[in-house]
Amino acid sequence: MRYVFIIFAACLTLYSIQTAPTGVKVEPGPPVIPCFDIYEIVVESDSPPEGNPFTDVRLSAIFTPNIGSPVEVEGFCDDQNGRCFRVRFCPSLAETEYKFSLTTNMETDKIHTGSFRTTGPAGMQPVIANPEHPKHFQFALSRQPFYHMGLTAYHLLDPSNDDKQIESLFDYCVRYGFNKVRFLLTGYPRDNDTRSKSEYKFEGDLWKLPNYGAPPGEVNPLPAWLGKPHKYDFTRFNIAHWQKADQAVQAMRERGIVATCIMTLEKQGLPRELGVLTENEKRLYRYSVARLAAFSNVWWDLGNEHNEYRKPDWAAKMGNLVKKWDPYDRLRSAHAHQDWLYGDQSWAGFIITQQYGNCSEVNQWALKYWHIAKPYVNEEYGYEGVLDVPKHGLNADWVRKCHWSIAMAGGYATYGDWTAESPFYTAHIGQGKAPAQLHCLRKTFESIPYSQMEPHNELVGKGAFCLAAEGDIYLIYLADVRETVLNVESAGQNYKITWIDPRTGKRSNSVDTAKDKITLRRPSSSDWAAIIKVKQ
Fold first, then answer.
1. Which end of the chain is more exposed for a tag (fewer CB within 10 A), N or C?
2. What is the DSSP pairing of strand 231-237 with strand 332-335?
3. Rounded to an integer, what distance in angstroms lies between the CA atom of residue 155 and that of residue 380?
4. How many other β-carbons are positioned within 10 Å of the β-carbon of residue 383?
5. What are phi and psi of 279, to 5 degrees?
6. N- to C-terminal Cα distance for the chain?
7. Which of 175, 214, 218, 152 is nearest to 383 (CA)?
8. Mapping DSSP to helix (H, G, I), strand (E, B) and coil, where does residue 526 land?
9. Which pLDDT value is given to residue 207?
10. For 369-516, where are the E strands, in sequence order?
11. DSSP per-residue codes, 275-336
12. pTM of the complete model
């Protein structure tokens, strides 16, 4: 597997910087890079510095464009023995010259300077909240809409997952339209898995099985630090693990996939071992930002279901710290179980909830937060399995219908596959049928001016949902009713009706109508959608 984002010392050209007499060598990145790529400065020491390189060594650089404000970026240790450090910077201005100055406490009164320039972007741009339509996402520079379609793969960085396995999952995402992967940076699973492979059976209550039903050997501790689970040295990071994270995030960027980095997960002792806003906990978040924030596709999730082990004020405090440390203001949120606890607090860039129910319930859950000017994401509305009830393990029909119902409230959602051997937790490819159907959903919503449409369920009957740019275009979803009436306001308008099969994405021939009240009767007994467009 090849990754091209890291500029190693062996292939760099040194310019505008001289080797320090103290044995510290500073090597800049290339003279020209595309906007939103990573510019990396490598700092090497002839001998390991005294003390702990993760706590005692400091380095930072200030990057100043020829037009615009300077940006200060912290560096990080990238060698277990403390002989290599890096500063990563993501320039956000195209066709611009940048100058930088770098300092480190490994030297005394020494400033290293250099410059480079940017071209137009050649890779994935950052995804931000749309300032004009703040319930939706867009790309930062092009301002084109970003339709969020997430996938859960908690243990993506599991040591049992090699490069080929990780890349196969990302290729699967591209194939089925998933453009965001949420995964853990740290953690370890439940400790009571003593089964052998011959003893493993995927049956019973999955929540009572060790490691959420994953096969033995498939869910291992994520060794973010040196040491062993429950005995980690929280002052020393495990470089090999973080380099694996680098590679995974870059591989996602190359495929146009957002990488949502989840710091910790509930149902583990790790969050309690780190402590609440301790130096150890802060060090984890600060190192994550220094190392990964320069990737243009990164988002932050402060902690999955963090409210099970933290009080609500913790997320606000940690969120503001991450906001301060992150020079690029990448999108941040915190996955609390069920409720969104933080209103419109400024540290959070989007809303995360976890709630599963029937179509009406998940639709209303998203509408509950419509007044908050942030995109809404239901990260867990029920992973796909075989159950015909609203909880984790929904069958494909439930998954499709719930995802559509969330989208019809102006929200976004994240899929998880629990069809066999817990792929949502192992980061393997599952056997779910819903991904192909969700790909059709994404194509449908990308074909309409989604960010300009608002929920208007009052225009249709119970069991149906409506999105509209009133007087222009309407999207109706008949989730649980055979027919409904759309009460349009523009008397005498001519409309074109196009039916969409949510299972295949296939569209019917358009039907013309001139009625003020339009009766919509779905073509079969299952759910259907219809686009009603005013004829010009």
1. C
2. unpaired
3. 16
4. 28
5. -60, -35
6. 52
7. 152
8. coil
9. 56
10. 376-380, 384-387, 394, 412-415, 454-455, 464-469, 473-478, 483-487, 495-500, 511-513
11. -SS-HHHHHHHHHHHHHHTTSTTEEEEEEETGGGTS-HHHHHHHHHHHHHH-TT---EEEE-
12. 0.93
The residue type of 301 is: D
Q: Which residue matches tokens 């062993």? A: 228
| The residue to which tokens 């039903």 are assigned | 213
Query: What is the distance between the alpha carbons of residues 214 and 197, in angstroms, rounded to a whole number?
Result: 11
**Bridging pattern class, strands 473-478 and 454-455:** unpaired
In the chain, the amino acid numbered 390 is P
Residues in the chain: 536
Kindly report the average pLDDT of the chain as a whole number.
91
Q: Where would I find the H helices in 60-114?
A: none
How do strand 528-534 and strand 495-500 relate by DSSP bridges?
antiparallel
d(CA 473, CA 92): 35
The one-letter amino acid code at 106 reads M
Nearest to 369 by CA among 389, 383, 348, 390: 348
For residue range 215-256, what is the model confidence (pLDDT) as tens digits? 778 888 899 999 988 899 999 999 999 999 999 999 999 999
Q: How far apart are CA 2 and CA 5, in angstroms?
A: 10
Structure tokens that stand for 295 in this block: 């990737």
User: What pLDDT shows up at residue 200?
Assistant: 59
User: Hey, what's the torsion of the CAs at 116, 119, 125, 131, to 10 degrees?
Assistant: 90
pLDDT of residue 198: 64
How far is residue 12's CA from residue 26's CA, in Å, rounded to a whole number?
11
| CB-CB neighbours of 523 under 10 Å | 11
Contact between 112 and 23 (Cβ < 8 Å): no
Residue type, 485: V
d(CA 510, CA 220): 53
Separation CA 409–CA 366 (nearest Å): 6
Cα–Cα distance between 295 and 293 in angstroms, integer? 5
Of 415, 373, 343, residue with least CA distance to 149 = 415
- Amino acid of residue 396: A
State the amino acid at position 373 in one-letter form: A
CA-based R_g, the chain, Å: 25
Q: How many CB atoms lie within 10 A of CB 462?
A: 9
